Amino acid sequence: GQNIDQPTEMTATEGAIVQINCTYQTSGFNGLFWYQQHAGEAPTFLSYNVLDGLEEKGRFSSFLSRSKGYSYLLLKELQMKDSASYLCAVEDSNYQLIWGAGTKLIIKP
Amino acid sequence: IAGITQAPTSQILAAGRRMTLRCTQDMRHNAMYWYRQDLGLGLRLIHYSNTAGTTGKGEVPDGYSVSRANTDDFPLTLASAVPSQTSVYFCASRRGGDTGELFFGEGSRLTVL
To answer: Contact B78/B86 with Cβ under 8 angstroms?
Structure first.
């Protein structure tokens, strides 16, 4: 079966760095997405990786290793507004997105 | 403002009633999707449409139907609602069935009693 694993919850301190991991087992791979979802709101796009390596976009970076079925989202200089759930999704061989349950990130002052 | 509009934003419904959730996008995206989101679970695909006139079943299609008469609209119908369909429903779209990131509507919170 297809499976996406992420930690359920993480806590970090304002100004610090946090890494959210995502491991996957899917029928094929056509790319990996990270989305941010604030409580009661819609998910919003953060990043997309299709090749191995690190993609940097401001305070957020995303890494992919296809051979290991592994990705992480790195958030630097954490701000209180970064408190949200972070969703990992893999695009399978049929170009359908398979979603992880999300990681709830709590930022403490 | 370009984007996806869902209606209603919230609804309480008696079991056995018929309900249609509306979704409209103005980005001229070809592909549209309906997901449900439940606590502790990832987004689960209900139905999708890669282009106007075509639809497909996702992971959890039972009890739901969709239509795609034109590019902009993708309504989701619950023919006879049951309590297990209590959830938050998100409509999403992207440029193509295999292209680009998904853009999401604000969600419709449905409670079936």
So the answer is: no
